[in-house]
Structures are given as C-alpha cells and as structure tokens.
Amino acid sequence: xxxxxxxxxxxxxxxxxxxxxxxxxxxxxxxxxxxxxxxxxxxxxxxxxxxxxxxxxxxxxxxxxxxxxxxxxxxxxxxxxxxxxxxxxxxxxxxxxxxxxxxxxxxxxxxxxxxxxxxxxxxxxxxxxxxxxxxxxxxxxxxxxxxxxxxxxxxxxxxxxxxxxxxxxxxxxxxxxxxxxxxxxxxxxxxxxxxxxxxxxxxxxxxxxxxxxxxxxxxxxxxxxxxxxxxxxxxxxxxxxxxxxxxxxxxxxxxxxxxxxxxxxxxxxxxxxxxxxxxxxxxxxxxxxxxxxxxxxxxxxxxxxxxxxxxxxxxxxxxxxxxxxxxxxxxxxxxxxxxxxxxxxxxxxxxxxxxxxxxxxxxxxxxxxxxxx
Length: 373
Description:
It comes from Sakuraeolis japonica. GO terms for molecular function: metal ion binding; oxidoreductase activity; quinol-cytochrome-c reductase activity. By secondary structure, this protein is mainly alpha-helical. It contains 14 helices and two strands, in the order αβααααααααβααααα. Helices cover about 65% and strands about 0% of the residues.
C-alpha cells in the first residue's frame, strides 16, 4: 500500500499558487522582511557596544564609529536601513491602497497596519538612543504629547519618562522597547503572512479567484532576489558613500537640556504626521489629528462594500490616490519647514485634504457601483 508523502512547510511555502500577473509592486513584502532581518542583526551587534547611560551614551556611539572594527559600517547600515525600511513600507501601503487590498484581504490589512504603527514606535525609540541634540529634544516634544490626554495625561507622561523630564530612566526604557519590539514585528509579520496565504494574493485586477496560477518558486523567487540585490546596492551606496545624507546635522552634538535647537523636527518618515500635529493650535486636537492620521488605515476595511472595482478601470479612484500621494509628500516637506508663515497656514488645508482623500477612497467603490449599475 502506497503512502502519500506529506509536503513539509518549506515546500508548501515555495509551491504556493501565485497569480501569473504579479508585478514588481508585489516585491515590497519580501524586501521589508529582508530589511527587518538586517535591522535585527545589525542592531544586535550594535547593542554589544552601546551604553544606555546619559553620561556615556553619546561617547559610546562615537566609540562604535571610531574604535570598534566594522562598527561604522554596522551603524551606517542600521541608521540608513531604517530609512529604507520606511521607504518600502510606504510603497507597500501605497500598493495596498491602489489595488484595494483592504477590501479583498481585510484581516491581512489590519495586521499590516498594526505592523506599520509598531514600526513607527520602534523607529522613534531608536532615534532617541544616540542621545544627540535632535534625539533629546525630539523625544521631549513628542512624549510631551501624552500630557494632553484628559485626567491621566500628567501621570502617564511621568510614568513614560520615569521622572519629571526626559532623562536616564527614559533612555533605559526606550532602549528596552527598541530592542524587544522588532521581535514583536517579526511575530506580527508571521501572522500577516498567515492571513495572506489563507485567501491567497491578489493581482493587479484585485481578483482572488485566478484562472492562471503558477508556483511561487522558481518564478517569483528570482524576482524577489532581484529586489534584494537592488536593496543591497542602495544600502551599500548609503552606508559607504552617503551615510549622513538622511540624518540631521544637529544630532552630531551631544544632548543638552540647556540648549534648544532652532528647529526641532523628527526623522523624515514622521514629518507628515508632525506637520498635521503642529498645524492645529489646540494641543489635544493636534494629538487626536496625529493619531487619526494613522488610525484611519484601520477604518478602510469597514467602509468598504465588499465588492471591488479595479483601480485600472476607475480613473477617478486613480486621481484620488495620486492626489493623496502628492498631499502626503507636501505634508512631509511642510513638517521639515520652520514653524512660521506661510508653512503653518499651508499645512491646514493639506491636513484637511489628507483626511478628505482617505474618505474619498473609502466611499469610491460604493459610489462607482451605483453609477455603473
């Protein structure tokens, strides 16, 4: 009697049926997985020489760059790898928005949104660790937003700081969170893949029931390898030739609570949310707007009709999507501008457009269905 050989998990993963019409935009997930691995490995080696001590923290970073063999390379790759991670993360979210993945795969979308928010938290904690001027004052400004919460704001801020200001306890906690949360992202990524393979991947037409499918390996593994090589080239170029192009010059000065930078701003991948925060004069309103700018991604699946009209056949949806991209870029630029006119005034309509365009994306499928029915 013959026994049927059970396929092992690796064979099942490599042989998963995939749409033949996959484009390069579907490379983002695998590239993010590789970048997450690079960040964890480089961060692990950096933590061996890093000192979470206010008096020696800045010096320990200089020690890593100057004295530790290969430390400069690990530090450059880790710092610039975070920027590349968010480049591909925003592209991945944009691809999901354009092809309406939040309708066809709502559970995958919700877990992915959680990964996005946790990644922002990890990046913020990591930005504080070098203990430069912008790190210290960025942490002071951003964490002070917690105090805007009614009733519990003051106590929550003191608990988060571990005192009455950003100090030693804050640095210790941020280092712990920055070290632990990437493994949480790894677990969420596994859940993200589990939900993805439950229904299968979509294609540019937004369909799940594909007539023509091919095994993932070897066809798409080669495409992923090309993506990995492109990312490796970008990392090498940034790490060797332009290591500080994405950083702030103010962060080359050691943190000092007695000297405030002329213009306090976070890293570039937070600037759109920072522009939304500071364009609202009310502190609590600004915090709510900032949180809403991220939480609105959770709302997209609930506003969907369950039916998908491919964006390829919906010109108005394409216009709304690309307008959203332009508004996002303008907000990013405004977040880097000084807090003065005309930048403050310009940020207000851009913030309104940001939320209105998201609402348009939510309502567009149902409106289009009524128009064509």
